[in-house]
């Protein structure tokens, strides 16, 4: 495993743990990865045998996705579009599972985006939502000495800066409930992974597996949620 794969596994292991029962539930699912970028998640889901499409505004990302899928010998349909035009691209009731990872942060209107995703999902379908978490972002900015940015980020009413929106547990789940979703589970992602120097994982044998085990152990403990770089919400 390369150094970046090792680091990546510590950041995504819990998301895969949560998604596994959905993906392994039997049958081939229509999976839509909105803002799927270069397809890090999408190709792995396609390798499990599901029909996967990625909608992303970036032609460069879609080109990388096509290359990655070709190299792995899987089919992933890439379409150019964004959350505001999603229904025109995919149609309503077209997906069993929507992945929306790292995207709600950058859209103008997160509430409207979730309503659109609700319409794209078939009845009984699931949404895997991964968003940046507000409290951890405040701490990260303060530790970097960006005190005015940390102060501004405390208040959800302040317009987001260049790094986009961040969400607390209550903000994310309220947006989902208002859009018509039921919350199936909330997990903290990257509670420790971003705090650990990469060199430690490179030099210390077994440390990647031990860090993954630690992330798994704290992911559903509410007291650690505010420290997590990201929140993962599984919703139906
Ligand atoms: C941080 S990347 C996340 C990529 C991928 N989902 C992942 O988890 O690795 C954000 C992605 O959202 C895409 N994006 C930006 N604005 C978007 C929008 N309005 N609707 C959908 N996707 C958007 C970008 O092109 C980029 O690929």
Describe this structure in words.
Helix content is 43%, strand content 20%. It is an alpha/beta fold and 236 residues long. A 7-stranded mixed beta sheet has the order 3-2-1-4-5-7-6, sandwiched between helices. Helix 1 packs across helix 10 and helix 6 runs antiparallel to helix 7. The longest helix has 21 residues. The radius of gyration is 18 Å and the shape is globular. The model has no long low-confidence stretch (mean pLDDT 94). Bound molecules: S-adenosylmethionine (SAM). S-adenosylmethionine binds next to loops.
- Which strand order do you get reading across the main beta sheet? 3-2-1-4-5-7-6
Work out the helix count.
10
Number of strands: 7
Percent of sequence in beta strands: 15-25%
Low-confidence stretches: none
Residue share in helix: 40-55%
- Average pLDDT, rounded to a whole number, is 94
Give the N-terminus to C-terminus distance in angstroms: 34 Å
Question: Which small molecules are bound?
Answer: S-adenosylmethionine
Q: What's the helix-strand series?
A: HEHEHEHEHEHHHEHHE
Rg over CA atoms: 18 Å
> What is the overall silhouette?
globular
Q: Which class of secondary structure composition applies to the elements?
A: alpha/beta
Largest sheet, strands/sense/barrel: 7 strands, mixed
Short description:
This protein is of the alpha/beta class and 236 residues long. 43% of the residues lie in helices and 20% in strands.
Topology diagram in text:
Elements: H1 3-23, E1 30-34, H2 42-47, E2 51-56, H3 59-72, E3 76-80, H4 86-90, E4 95-101, H5 110-120, E5 121-132, H6 134-143, H7 147-153, H8 169-178, E6 183-189, H9 198-203, H10 207-218, E7 230-235
Helix pairs in contact: 1-10, 6-7
């Amino acid at each position: 495993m390369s150094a970046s794969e090792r680091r990546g596994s510590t950041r995504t292991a819990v998301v895969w743990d949560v998604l596994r029962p959905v993906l392994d539930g039997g049958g081939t699912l229509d999976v839509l990865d909105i803002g799927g970028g270069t397809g890090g998640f999408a190709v792995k889901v396609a390798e499990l045998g599901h029909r996967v499409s990625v909608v992303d505004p970036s032609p460069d990302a879609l080109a990388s996705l096509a290359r990655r899928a070709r190299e792995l010998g899987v089919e992933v349909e890439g379409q150019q579009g964004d959350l505001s035009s999603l229904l025109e691209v995919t149609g309503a009731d077209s997906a069993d599972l929507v992945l929306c990872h790292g995207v709600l942060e950058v859209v103008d209107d997160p509430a409207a985006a979730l309503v659109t995703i609700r319409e794209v999902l078939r009845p009984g379908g699931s949404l895997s939502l991964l968003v940046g978490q507000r409290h951890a972002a405040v701490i990260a900015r303060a530790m970097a000495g960006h005190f005015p940015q940390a102060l501004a980020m405390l208040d959800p009413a302040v317009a987001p800066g260049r790094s986009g929106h961040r969400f607390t547990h209550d903000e994310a789940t309220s947006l989902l409930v208002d859009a018509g979703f039921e919350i199936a589970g909330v997990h903290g992602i990257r509670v420790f992974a971003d705090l650990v120097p990469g060199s430690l994982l490179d030099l210390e044998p077994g440390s990647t597996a031990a860090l993954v085990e630690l992330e798994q152990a704290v992911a559903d403990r509410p007291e650690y949620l505010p420290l997590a770089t990201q929140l993962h919400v599984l919703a139906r």
